[in-house]
Amino acid sequence: MRRALDLAAPVLLIALLLGIWEGLCRLLDVPAFFLPTPSAVAVALVQNAPLLFISAGRTLGTALSALLIVSLIANLIALAAASSRTVARAFSPVAATIQVTPVIALAPLFGVWAGVDHPERAVIALAAIVAFFPIYSGALTGLTSADPELERLFDLYGANSWQRLLRLRIPSAVPQMLQGQKVGLGLALVGAVTAELVAGSGGQEGLAWRIVEASHRLLLDRSFAALVALALMAAVLNLAYAALERWALAWWRGR
Amino acid sequence: MAAVAALEAVEVDYPGRGRALGPFDFQLNSGEIVALVGPSGCGKSTALRLLAGLEPATRGTVRRAAGRGETSVVFQSPTLAPWLSATDNVALPLALAGVDGREARARAVEALRHVGLAGAERARPAQLSGGMAMRASLARALVTGPKVLLLDEPFAALDEITRRALADDILALWSRDRPAVVFVTHNVEEAVYMASRVVVMTPGPGRAAGELAIDAPAPRPPGFRTTPAFREAAEHLSDLLAAAMAPAA
């Protein structure tokens, strides 16, 4: 009973909010180009489903490409920083700058560098930059916070730096790396959407492009439909990653 | 008896925290079990780290006859890698020394069997109880066949029954190869039960305050804890400790 209520509560709240929205729109006769009713959004979602699906795939592709690229770079730099204090110190202001710079401010520059024919490259680069910091800092924290007594044990047995890195530091870093990767994934998606809004996406019509395009034509039901598709995609991605993380941590801990 | 390690007038200062140990003199002979007893913060663990070569002395001389890989340490906590199975944890010192993987694992399985962990080879540390994890840690220390075995309050986190069982097992294991053992404790009865010699330390910075030889066969005969000899030694050691704790005249 309790469990059923727990499951039903959020559904009921959403249904209630949608009901109020629908009722107010109809009661006050709000024009559809200003605020469409939830039912109109649902219709637009179904009618545009194939198109939205393709666009969602493109946005997802952009975010995942960015994540892949930035994961390689950020983890390599974190490895270098974990192995050398000088590298860590040299890189720390750069990392901090990347963290605090709003991606929107960089978008026009990357648009120019990528050229008018390839705005999607600018979008990938921008999404990668947004996702950089949490991945870098998660990996660096993990790599430098191995159990000090295990470090001592490696001292005792005369481990060389390679053995220490491969057998102690990298395996120790796994939980923190997964955490950084999770935050990075979310930010890569935010970055991909934001960058597409600002820099455009050329032939790659992602979900952000759908939202902008429909808004320009005052087809707000379609804008909302694209928004719903985006939210659904993000939720699915999050759940998928959470499952992957749980599995990976269970493997790491052995249960 | 040949000395396998010695500390000669060693002192250890930690920046910002002052003197942690010394001046302290200590000699470890081959085949003996020495208990280092003293109050918390007297530098017992520091002395152990000096003997292990994990830390330099600020002043004085540390002599170690055992080479790399011939000294093993068991820390207060089991210090097992959570991502490795019991076997791989025990095989780690061998793997780091470049021993072939298959042989290292075979020796690790054998070492696990000796400490009573047959059947737990594939278990991860999270699946082991506190006592079992400590046994795995002990197996890891013994797998290299060390000449010197250093135990840093290995029973601190265990319940009384587990402590006693583990103490007996350590003595039984010791009697096979008879490595020189130093073990740190602040439990008087444990020191008397385990050691052939007990060194009492003053409050930190620790100095040697006294010494007590325990004249009893090793491993201990059954019921040793209830013999008059045991009680007498424990009382004598308690007196030494009390004297060490009293402020210097």
Instruction: Give the H and E element order of chain B.
Output: EEEHEEHHHEHEHEEH
User: What is the 3D shape of chain B?
Assistant: globular
Q: Helicity level of chain B, as a percent range?
A: 25-40%
Instruction: Extract low-pLDDT stretches of chain A.
Output: none
Q: Note the run of SSEs of chain A as H and E.
A: HHHHHHHHHH
Strand arrangement within the widest β-sheet of chain B reads: 5-6-7-3-8-9
Tell me the span between the first and last alpha carbons of chain B. 35 Å
Q: What's the domain count of chain B? A: 2
- The helix content of chain A is over 70%
Q: Quick one: overall form of chain A? A: globular
Secondary-structure-derived class of chain A: mainly alpha
Quaternary state reads: heterodimer
User: Which CATH-level-2 architecture of the domain at 56-207 in chain A?
Assistant: Orthogonal Bundle
Largest sheet of chain A: none
| CATH C-level class of the largest domain in chain B | Alpha Beta
Stated plainly, the CATH topology of the largest domain in chain B is called Rossmann fold
In total, how many beta strands of chain B? 9
Q: Regions of chain B with pLDDT < 50 over 5+ consecutive residues? A: none
Count of runs of 4 or more consecutive helical residues of chain A:
10
Mean pLDDT of chain B: 88
Rounded mean pLDDT score of chain A:
90
Describe the structure.
The complex is a heterodimer of chains A (255) and B (249). Chain A has 255 residues and is mainly α. Chain A has a domain at 56-207: MetI-like (MetI-like fold, Orthogonal Bundle). Chain A has helices spanning 2-27, 38-47, 49-83, 85-100, 103-114, 119-143, 148-156, 161-199, 207-216, 220-253. In chain A, helix 3 (49-83) runs antiparallel to helix 4 and helix 8 packs antiparallel against helix 10 (220-253). Chain A starts with a helix and ends with a helix. With 249 residues, chain B is an alpha/beta fold. Chain B folds into two domains: 1-66 and 179-249, 3-Layer(aba) Sandwich (Rossmann fold), CATH 3.40.50; 67-146. Chain B has a six-stranded mixed β-sheet, sandwiched between helices. A three-stranded antiparallel β-sheet of chain B has the order 2-1-4, with helices on one face. The radius of gyration of chain B is 18 Å and the shape is globular. The A-B interface holds A 147, 149-150, 152-159, 163, 167-168, 171-172, 174, 252-255 and B 52-54, 68-69, 71-73, 75, 77, 79, 81-85, 92-93, 95-97, 123-127.
